[in-house]
Amino acid sequence: MHITSVDTARKLKSAGLEWEPHKGDAYYDIGNIEYVLRRVLDFIRRAGGYSGPLENLVWLLRLGQLCAELEKRGYLVDSLHYRSGYLTVLSRLDDTGEWEEVYNGPTGESRVESVALALLWVLEQQPRKQHFHISEVMRNAAGKVMRG
Question: Which of 29, 24, 23 lies closest to 10 in space, CA to CA?
Answer without folding.
Answer: 29
